[in-house]
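Let us work through a complete example step by step.
Step 1: write down the sequence.
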Amino acid sequence: MTIRKNTDYFRILLYLLFTAAMLFLEYTLDNREPFSLALAYALALSGLSPYVVSFFFFAVSIVRPTFVNILLHGGQALLLMLGFFVRSRLKKRKNPLPPLLALSLGLGLYVGFAPFSPYTLISALSPVLQKTCVCAFAFLLSAVFTVATNALLKKLLKCRLLGEEIVFCALLFVATGIGICNFWSLNAYTGIAFFILLTFTFVVKDASALVCAFVLSLPPALTASLPLDRFFVYGTAVALFVRAGRLSATLALLCAFFAYGYFDGLYTYATPLLVQSVLAAVLPALLFILLPSPLVREMENKLIFYREKHLSRIAINRNRSAIGEQLFEISAVFREIQTTFAALGSNEAEAGAREYIRSCVTEEACKNCPQYRSCQRKGLAEELDKLIAVGCLKGKTSLIDLPRALAETCINQSNVLYAVNRQLSDYRKYMTETENAANGRALLANQAQGISAILKNLAIEQSEPLKMYTDKERALNAALQKAGVVCSEVLIYGDADDPTLSLITYGIADVKKIAAIASEQFHETMIISQRLTLSNDKFCCILRKKPQFDAVFGVASMKKTGEIASGDTHSVIRIDERRFMVALSDGMGSGEYARRISESTISLLESFYRAKMPSETVLSTINKLITFTNEETFACVDIAIVDLDDGKADIIKIGSPVGFILSGNTVKVLETATLPLGILDTLHPDASSYDLKENDVLLFLSDGVTDAFGSTTDLYEVLKTLPARNPQQLVDTLLERTLAAYGGIAKDDATAVAVRLFRSPQI
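Step 2: predict the structure and record it as tokens.
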């Protein structure tokens, strides 16, 4: 079987680029100094194949060949391969001595055999000594090039380069750029420099483009005495227009180039030279514009990735995951508690109690009877069980409850009935305690179920890792800086439709300006959800999307004439930033006792809904708590959970009178067929969802209001005449009409709660 390996085109491109660099380094100075050998040594030491690198090093000698130069490069290439071969055979494969020795011998060959024209600048030194100094400098350059190639091959676009790595990479480029100018031409270097400047500036999009321009300006300055300020102007032009797109940045560079050409006399050049100069600027610009967008985007993303601080996100996500797992475990514990309490409920206690009553009656009234054994043989024990069963249902037995067989046979009926009734008295106490215990277990089971649901929802919410919004964070940070808001950190997390934004600012925290800038960036109205002071001049601002709706409320209440307290209680609370609850509870009757029932119900509703417990669990738990006592207590309840993002209202009515939704000229009636809280052990509330629109009014009423008007039709006619724009005015007027309908004397507690939604101002 033949296995074909995929060709690594990127590595081939690397070899070709570095081969070109070795070629240009041959022409950095006038005597084809061995700088290319220093680069070949550095490349082999940085992880590229020393044999392939040595081959390409030898290949550069073929350009403008001479016999001595080819032999010299061949010997240096063989020495380099031999040094790295010996190194690979040693036990300590990273031993630097064999490659260093090979490099030293290769530089020695240059000193001994390379043709050399002495430099007049250091004419005091002999040619051999000058060559030795050049080789010593090349030896030092090999260390510089090693650091640079390591950074380029292993770290570029993968992590942040160190300062010395950036400097050494710049030195490698400057040396290569000088060789390009000497070997090729200044126009060729200009084209390469323009392409590098455009690509680098477009990827980084910051002031480091000016540093790049400075490095690019050095080779032409050293070879052609071109002023340094020229490339600085080029870099500034590109940096100013780069955020407007590739085309704008390219046009800015070309405009700067042709403007300089006017002062340089470019347009007076002979046609061939003019064409070369123009092509040197236009061709790289065209190549930059034609670069594939995915390639440019990939470079941007990689650069952004290593610029960003990821450890904080990783730490947050790890903590969220750990908290989520722990919450799941705790949720499972409470679910198991609920299952256990539910399993404990059975009829075994009642059956055991009846068995105990039969044994006591038999011991007390039957065993001393002379016909005891005869009755046993006739099966009258089963008849006694029937009598006890009836007694348990009625609470007491009499002669008419005796089964026929027992009445005809038993000669001691009065003693049997007395014994049964005495045991039934104890049985009632025992069953009351058993029932209370069962109710307690059911209550605890409901609570465990509710807590389990809360913890499970929290676990799901916490387990979701923070998403990456790097582009948005960069854009927002740039917009804040542009507006004069000093911002050191920006973090965006949550769903894309409902993001949460956290940022650290310095100086005076202008929350209005910050919110306005964030709103513009997200195309949503953002508001400051929280502002935390970290120090005297350092703040953390947390922003959330502003809900689509807001609400105004109106409440009016009056107590029954002659009572000191009202049995009606209402509540309007914010569950979270996006939802609120409005509730009205009407306790049984009126006065202080009714008030306590109503207040307890509302207090429990507030606590449970703030804890985000499921509605079914909330209502069944409150119902159990009210029915837990033997007193006659109940409450009629209206509940509405309203979402301000979309106006959705979940309305629950339990034994309460009619409610209304006032929408423009229409009125929607809300009714219920369920009994109040506290009457039955089980509860099946009426729950419905409604979509409230702008300016819709939700109206809850206690029975003190509805009873005053006699019928829903009469109340409906009254509501059509009342102003609904102002909720407070609506409920005040309604209670005035209620009191008038009662003839000026309030015959019951009366309360009205109104909520109107209105659209929040958006951007």
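Step 3: interpret the result. DSSP finds 26 helices and 14 strands in the chain.
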